[in-house]
Predict the 3D structure of the following.
Amino acid sequence: MTDHTVITDDLVEQLTQRIRVLEDKEALSSLMNRYCRTADENDWEGWSRCFTENADFDFGPFGQHHGREEIREVCEAAEAPYLDKQHSMTNMQFEVDGDTARGTAYLWFAGVPDPLNPLHHYDIGGPYRWEFQRTDEGWLLSRMNLRIVWTQGDADASVFD
Amino acid sequence: MTDHTVITDDLVEQLTQRIRVLEDKEALSSLMNRYCRTADENDWEGWSRCFTENADFDFGPFGQHHGREEIREVCEAAEAPYLDKQHSMTNMQFEVDGDTARGTAYLWFAGVPDPLNPLHHYDIGGPYRWEFQRTDEGWLLSRMNLRIVWTQGDADASVFD
Amino acid sequence: MTDHTVITDDLVEQLTQRIRVLEDKEALSSLMNRYCRTADENDWEGWSRCFTENADFDFGPFGQHHGREEIREVCEAAEAPYLDKQHSMTNMQFEVDGDTARGTAYLWFAGVPDPLNPLHHYDIGGPYRWEFQRTDEGWLLSRMNLRIVWTQGDADASVFD
């Protein structure tokens, strides 16, 4: 039998907040999936819009960079030799704190210089550390750090030196 | 202090809808995990039930196929040389629109002809594009597209030519 | 227009339960991400706290082991030759049943003996089977089973023999 106790605002506000945290984590995962897909489709304009205007970028082989435009220029140029590529991310993990968030994941990247020769590629992997900000355009990356743990393939196909 | 404003149907319906979207994405991820696991366990009957009866399948090396039964026959035969295998998927992303949905992910596949020699395998990777329908049996795949970005291993162990 | 029907406890309890299941799956995913990250950072104390005190561990090359401390000793010693490493997990899937849960996933592991030579590493992959218990410290692993499907790299860098 249903109990006709009146439900208070308080309880519903708690449920709403719990749903919001789950939605935020889903939105952060969705942002990083877009980050991978736009890079792999050479949509560098779409890729750059995953970052805040003042984002910081730190990846050893590509250097430290600041600002959406500079980050785009550096990465688009660096990855240009790969006409096809795959940015696989695993173990995405997010901690949301109001309008900021932190995250971690692993990268498994394959870069293919010649799409007609998919057997020839250079791969790297390692851990990401991210920071995010909630903005009018949704969650965006404000800090990106990547470290290389392993590499694979012919070093002459590497852009990571 | 709790506020004893009476909560309306409207607000609860909105919360219910937000939970449903999160559950749908979880169910779609679960479907694709089942797709991988059944294929890797050679449970092709279970694997075929991940598709709608009228599903479309498009993967270059295996061709274009229509219908659950045809898709099963083609894939079961094509992958038969791999006595052990691993369909790893990363970056699963789903967009739900009522009783249909779309999704993307990356594949990292390893096919092992001889389980006693796990060092000898042939691997491929690339992006998936999916469409789904909500049915009486839950969410099912209605369209599957896979493109190869990279390959790896001894080409004589490849079934993807 | 909003409908001022009074919402019952019953409906709110159902919504709360649905949110809880989604939160549980997120917490289990979070636990396994912590499992990977602590191992890769050589935080074996943190890693061991992912297991219940009486957990069972079964991974062919490392053997069968019982109890948090024994599992830690065996794994910490076995993986010591890898000064850098990456435990990537894909296809995490969880089924929650009250205060217990089951899960599956795939491993993609890279072990690097010398961080100055990231091109030289030994990799393995295969399916996990997990059992979990809800405890005062949150969800913990009570049973871990891993099977190797494929290996990769120079066998002289393998700790899995």
Notes: Strands of chain C lie at 51-59, 63-66, 84-97, 100-112, 122-135, 138-146, 150-153. Helices of chain C lie at 9-40, 44-48, 68-78. Chain C has a mean pLDDT of 94.
